[in-house]
Write a structure and sequence with these properties.
Shape: globular
CATH architecture of the largest domain: 3-Layer(aba) Sandwich
Number of domains: 2
Radius of gyration: 17 Å
Strand content: 5-15%
Order of helices and strands: EHHHHHHEHEHHEHEH
CATH superfamily of the largest domain: HAD superfamily/HAD-like
Structural class: alpha/beta
Number of strands: 5
């Protein structure tokens, strides 16, 4: 019986816009942004930031060198928010609220970074003026845990920290590699299409 539901963030709760991110990083001076950014798993200093190996200020300084000028925190934040493809779909958030009213525990399990999370934990996150954490029992982010999906360690951390069982947990993600990693630990999984409406598929999964 499913008691816990863990959600990926980008591509599941908010729509990911890779092309928008490339353009926003180019606007601040990263001419080869299309070579440095990745649709699913970051590389270089972008991966170091999302894995927690470097802090935001160190990232900003290294990115400034790549852009050949000193960047402000606001410029770096605006570049990262290029990944956010429009307003967050409130129907997805309404579904998460309804799941919690029905007794499910909800969690975030995401490869992300402090800049995106700064937005997510602000009133600007959605039209309700509520931060992401208000929809979740707890948020597990790669940069805070120090492990990135699809490494099994981040899933194990969530299971242990939240004191939940794999057999009672469902994980939604738009990455096959991440879903496969969760499944190897005995977690129920639902692979969803990036940026698609997953509500009907989730309902069928829970009903079954």
């Amino acid at each position: 019986m499913i008691k816990n539901i863990a959600f990926d963030f980008g591509g599941v709760i908010f729509n990911l816009d890779y092309e928008g991110a490339v353009e926003s990083f180019k606007r601040i001076g990263l001419a080869d942004a299309d070579q440095r950014l990745d649709r699913y798993h970051q590389r270089g200093i972008f991966e170091e930031l999302e894995s927690g190996r470097i802090k935001p200020d160190a990232f900003r300084k290294e990115l400034s060198q790549m852009c050949h000028r000193e960047l402000t925190n606001d410029e770096v934040l605006s570049a990262w928010l290029g990944y956010v493809g429009g307003p967050v779909d409130l129907s997805r958030l309404d579904t998460i609220d309804e799941l919690r009213r029905r007794g499910y525990r909800t969690f975030l399990l995401s490869n992300t970074n402090p800049y995106v999370q700064q937005w997510a934990e602000s009133p600007a996150f959605c039209a309700y003026g509520r931060p992401l954490s208000s929809f979740m029992d707890k948020c597990y982010t790669s940069y805070e845990v120090g492990i990135m999906k699809p490494a099994e360690g981040i899933f194990r951390h969530m299971l242990t920290d939240a004191a939940i069982l794999p057999s009672e947990t469902l994980f939604l993600d738009d990455s096959a590699a991440n879903v496969e990693a969760a499944a190897r630990l005995g977690i129920h999984t639902l692979l969803v299409e990036k940026n698609a409406d997953w509500r009907a598929d989730l309902s069928c999964c829970l009903d079954s």
